[in-house]
Amino acid sequence: MFDYFQLQKDQKKQLTSQEKKQIRLEREKFEEDYKFCELDGRKEQVGNFKVEPPDLFRGRGAHPKTGKLKRRVNPEDIVLNLSKDAAVPPAPEGHKWGEIRHDNTVQWLAMWRENIFNSFKYVRLAANSSLKGQSDYKKFEKARQLKSYINAIRRDYTRNLKSKVMLERQKAVAIYLIDVFALRAGGEKSDDEADTVGCCSLRYEHVTLKPPNTVIFDFLGKDSIRFYQEVEVDKQVFKNLTIFKRPPKQPGHQLFDRLDPSILNKYLQNYMPGLTAKVFRTYNASKTMQDQLDLIPNSGSVAEKLLKYNAANRTVAILCNHQRTVTKGHAQTVEKANNRIQELEWQKIRCKRAILQLDKDLLKKEPKYFGEIGDLTKEDEATIHKRIIDREIEKYQRKFVRENDKRKFEKEELLPESQLKEWLEKVDEKKEEFEKELESGEVELKSAWNSVGKK
C-alpha cells in the first residue's frame, strides 16, 4: 500500500504545470455541484462538503486515541437534510443515502457518526455564509453588551478576593484570571481525550508561585497549544493561589476544587443574561484591538497602516495565546531568509568598494561609512558566489523545462538544447567575473550598478 501511494506521489511530481492546471480545472468543475446550496432563495457556499477518507487518527498533541483507525464512511451512513421540495442528490452508484430529513430548525446539511469518538460529524455552510455571519454578529454583540457590566463585575470579584467563603474566593480568582489573562474556562476531560485544561481545570502542577506576586502558568490549552506565561498578579490573588495550593494538595489535585464552568457561568448570568466565561475573551480581545487601532494615526501610506494594523492584531494574538504551529519547511524558509540577508549585505559592500575605486580619498573622509567593507571573509564571499551561481543555473534549467512544457501543451515547436546552453554560458561569464573579483578585490563597476538596479 505504501509503495502504491509513493508511486502516485512520484507520478504527480512529474506532471507538467499545464497538466496540473488541467487536472485542477477538471476537479473544480466536478466539485461545482457540491460547493453550493440554495438557502431561502440565495446561493450559499458549503463549507466541508467532503467526507474524510479512511485514515489513522492523529489528533493534536499527545492524544490517547492517536493511531486508531478511522473507518470508511459509506452513503448508507449519511443523513441528508433538505427542503421538502428539493431534489435529492443521487447517491453513488450501487449505494443509497441512510436517511433524508426535512428539518429547517438546524443548520447542518448532512451528518454521519464517526467511529473514533462515536460522535456526529456535520456538513455546514461556509464561514462566509449569511448564517455564519449572523452567529458571529451575535457573539460580538454579546461582548459589546458586557461593556455595560464589566466595571460592576470587576468591583465585585475584587471584593470577593477576601471573602470568608472559599467558593466565593475561588470564583473571584477564576474570573480575575479569565478577565486579565484571557484564559478559557476549561472543563472536565474523560480519559480518552487529550489532557488539555483551562482556568477551572488547572491543577497543582500547572501553577508555580514566586514571591512576592509572580505566577508562572504552564499547561496545554485548547488544541494542545502550550500556554506558558510568567506574570505579575494582584497581591491578594497571589495570596489566594497560595491558599489553594496548601497541603494536603499535591501534583494532580485540582487548584479550583470547589468550582467548575457551570457554577461559574451560572454566577455570571446574575449580571447579564447569556453571559459566560468565554464572552470575556471576546470582549477583551475586541477592546484590545480597538485600543491598538486608536493609537494608529490617520496618516502615512497604506503599507504603513497595514504594518501597524498587523502589529495590533499581533497584540491581540499574544493576549489570547494564539500561536502558529511551526511548518515542515520553517527551518528551510529561515535559512533562505538569512542567506538573502547575507547576499544583500554583500551587495552593499560591493557597491561601497566600487565607490572607493572611483575615489579612494573617501575612505579617509568617511571611515565610519566604509567600516563594514572588511566584514565578510573570502570564504564567506566564495560561499555567496557559489549560492548565486547555483541558483542561476537552476533558474535557467527550470525556465527551459517550463517553456517546453508550455510549448508541448500548445503544440508548438520546442526550444532546442542550444537555447539552454546559451543561457548557461551567461552564468559561466558571471562565475568568471566573481572569481576574478574574489582574487583581485576589485569590482566590475557595471556589474555593481546593475545589481543595485535589480534590487
From TrEMBL:
> Can you cite a GO biological process for this protein?
DNA replication
Against InterPro entries, the record matches this protein to: DNA_brk_join_enz, DNA_topo_DNA_db_N_dom2, TopoI, TopoI_cat_a-hlx-sub_euk, TopoI_cat_euk, TopoI_DNA-bd_euk, TopoI_DNA-bd_euk_N_sf, TopoI_euk
Gene Ontology MF terms: DNA binding; DNA topoisomerase type I (single strand cut, ATP-independent) activity
For whether the record's keyword set contains Translocase, the answer is no
Matches recorded under Pfam families: Topoisom_I, Topoisom_I_N
Provide the DNA topoisomerase I eukaryotic-type domain boundaries: 56-453
Q: Which residues form a coiled coil?
A: 393-444
Q: What is its EC number?
A: 5.6.2.1
Q: Does the keyword Coiled coil apply?
A: yes
Q: Which reaction does it catalyse?
A: ATP-independent breakage of single-stranded DNA, followed by passage and rejoining
Question: What do the Gene Ontology cellular component annotations say?
Answer: chromosome; nucleolus
| UniProt KW keywords | Coiled coil, DNA-binding, Isomerase, Topoisomerase
Q: Which PROSITE patterns match?
A: TOPO_IB_2
By sequence similarity, the record places it as follows: Belongs to the type IB topoisomerase family.
Per the entry, what this protein does is:
Releases the supercoiling and torsional tension of DNA introduced during the DNA replication and transcription by transiently cleaving and rejoining one strand of the DNA duplex. Introduces a single-strand break via transesterification at the specific target site 5'-[CT]CCTTp site in duplex DNA. The scissile phosphodiester is attacked by the catalytic tyrosine of the enzyme, resulting in the formation of a DNA-(3'-phosphotyrosyl)-enzyme intermediate and the expulsion of a 5'-OH DNA strand. The free DNA strand then undergoes passage around the unbroken strand thus removing DNA supercoils.
From the Swiss-Prot or TrEMBL record, give the protein name. Answer: DNA topoisomerase I
> What organism does the UniProt record list as the source?
Saccharomyces cerevisiae x Saccharomyces kudriavzevii (strain VIN7) (Yeast)
